[in-house]
Amino acid sequence: MPSVRAFWINAALLMVKPVLHSICNEKFKQDFPSTELRNSGTDRNTHLEALARSLQGVAPWLELQEDPEAVALAPIARCAIALATDPNSTQYMAFTRGSQVEDAHQRQPLVDAAILAHAMLRAPRQLWGKLERGVKRNVIAALHLTRGIKPYMNNWQLFASIIEAFMYSHGEQVQEDRLLTGLRLHKEWYLGDGWWGDGPEFAHNFYNSYVIQPMLYDILTALHHRQGVESTPQFFIQEGLGELETLVSEGMSRWSSLLESFVHPDGSYPVIGRSVVYRCGAFHVLSLAALKHLLPSHVLPGQARTALTRAINRTLDASVTYDRNGWLTIGLIGSQPHLAQFYSSQGSMYQAAAVFLPLGLAASDPFWTDPQMPTTWEKLWRGEQAAS
Ligand SMILES: *[C@@H]1O[C@H](CO)[C@@H](O)[C@H](O)[C@H]1NC(C)=O
Ligand SMILES: *[C@@H]1O[C@H](CO)[C@@H](O)[C@H](O)[C@H]1NC(C)=O
């Protein structure tokens, strides 16, 4: 019987390999489907969405270089980054503000450039260090272009912040205002019990997991590592970012617990708020906490793996999830295009790859070696003892 880890690797490859190979073969912009139905105006952005979101999920696995599949894929991923950021390439992607009708479509490149920066922060050797010098120059130039796009007053603030955190950690010039505004605002927007508002207001959806907490965590981590040297910068102390770090740590613990307890034995879970078409990407925080060994003590690694495996199995069933050319469809279970927000394209769907972060843990880690364990849902509904 194939191991659970092999099941995860197959699921990850099924999602991201077609995207990375197609870009590297210079066919992606021609072959990737135009947006379905009512989600028009997104075609300019969809390619960078698919690339960036694919990479942010598998980055730790590529960085680990333990599995032959990851060894084979890393150069393809670098090739895709090189072409996507080369203005002379057929695969050059959109990093500037667009001229579509909808303002959100115009500003979308900021989102996906930020997610690309996030991916590169998660694989500093494989997706950054090993890029050729000229490619690095093009990547930095592409990220600079997004400085012309103003983020909305919500989780988008972190898109500007993470790009600057990437610049900071690699010793590039930083726009301090774009770095710090999002962090200052997220100190204000904390609501309690591990929840941030999406902006100043509470929003009942998975954005704490899709974006807010994972970006805060990786931004704050990046600010402690400048050009490979561990230190805490002066502005970190001045801005009281240590307090924000404490809140993020509480939030991730609370959300990991919540997300693990959501998963029904059949892999379904509550469908809450906008962007549920990101499928099991809803579990981003649980996956990140497992990767960083930050799960709360009552969620054992094997329990987290059991819950995540079920959610992956339920939402990425290969027989209904991909179209006949192997691209992710818009939907939660199979193709359900009307579930999507107006700004979502098929490329946006690759946010689901965020669930694959624990593949960055070696096969010898308890996350993989723990036996299958009853999840909190199972224990509680059987009348057994469990913390929640
Ligand atoms: C694009 O091609 C032109 C002409 O070959 C060259 O001068 C320029 O440096 C190239 N730009 C980049 C960013 O590689
Ligand atoms: C996925 O779900 C199917 C159908 O319920 C089940 O037979 C299979 O064992 C599951 N796979 C994993 C890895 O849990």
UniProtKB/TrEMBL annotation:
DUF2264 domain span: 5-374
Coiled coil ranges: none
Superkingdom of origin: Eukaryota
Assigned keywords, A-Z: Signal
UniProt-listed InterPro entries: DUF2264_N, UCP014753
Record's signal peptide: 1-22
UniProt-listed Pfam families: DUF2264
Presence of the UniProt keyword Signal in the record: yes
Protein name: DUF2264 domain-containing protein
